Amino acid sequence: MFIKSHMFRTDMRGLFIANFRGLKKPAITMHQIKEASLEDLRTMRREAEAIEYRSPEAMEEIIREYVKAQPVWTSFMERAITYNFENIFLDMIYILHFINDVKAFKERYPDRLFIHEAERNERLMTKVRKVLNDGVQKFLDYAVELKEKQPRVFVDLMTDYEISDRMHLPRS
Fold first, then answer.
1. What are the angstrom distances between the C-alpha of 96 and each of 25, 69, 93, 128, 164?
2. pTM
3. Closest-CA residue to 13 (of 30, 26, 1, 28)
4. Helix, strand or coil for residue 134?
5. Which CA distances in Å does 54 have to 26, 78, 86, 134, 160?
6. Nearest CA to 92 among 105, 106, 78, 104?
7. Cα–Cα distance between 42 and 144 in angstroms, integer?
């Protein structure tokens, strides 16, 4: 749990903040997650079964964060191999293949948005939605687990995320 908490706290923070900021529906903020009761968190998780994003550009920002986090996904995959967690291994392979697709596209078309290519290709868009949606859902699963089993760690983690989220707000 400590390693998982550390990775969620540091290496993945930008990704999760971007993913929740990109949500149109359900509109969930880090502050709402931090302040939520266990039942509220479970409700948020159920609502996250049907996700809509604010715009393709918001999705592109999240995709960039997935690419930046490639070492984390590789590390998760290595741990899954070491501890024989086949489901996690398969999830990490899926994400790493997705990242490789993005990188290959950006090498060939550095000035174009990957999401616009995905919008023209149904299979690719399915992959984008699966990766991004799973990220929101797994974060909420983890938040529920922490709130239930380690409430102090939950508060610490969400306080960090809330502070970081505020720092990413545009100046008014």
1. 26, 10, 5, 12, 26
2. 0.90
3. 30
4. helix
5. 10, 34, 33, 17, 24
6. 78
7. 7
* SS3 per-residue string spanning 7-49: HHHCCCHHHHHHHHHCEEECCCCHHHHHHCCHHHHHHHHHHCC
- What is the CB-side half-sphere exposure of residue 87 using CA atoms within 13 A? 0
Rounded-to-integer distance, Cα 37 and Cα 43, Å: 10
pLDDT digits (tens, 9 = 90+) for 35-88: 999 999 999 999 999 999 999 999 999 999 999 999 999 998 999 899 999 999
Q: How confident is the model at residue 1 (pLDDT cuts 50, 70, 90)?
A: very low
Question: Can you say whether the dihedral through the CA atoms of 43, 49, 55, 60 is positive or negative?
Answer: positive
Residue position matching structure tokens 């903020």: 29
Close Cβ partners of 114 (under 8 Å, ≥ 6 residues apart): 60, 63, 102, 105, 106
Backbone angles phi, psi at 119, to 5 degrees: -65, -25
26 preceded by a cis bond (ω within 30 of 0): yes
**Helix pair 2-9, 13-21: axis angle to 10 deg:** 60
**Half-sphere exposure in the Cβ direction for 169 (13 Å, CA):** 11
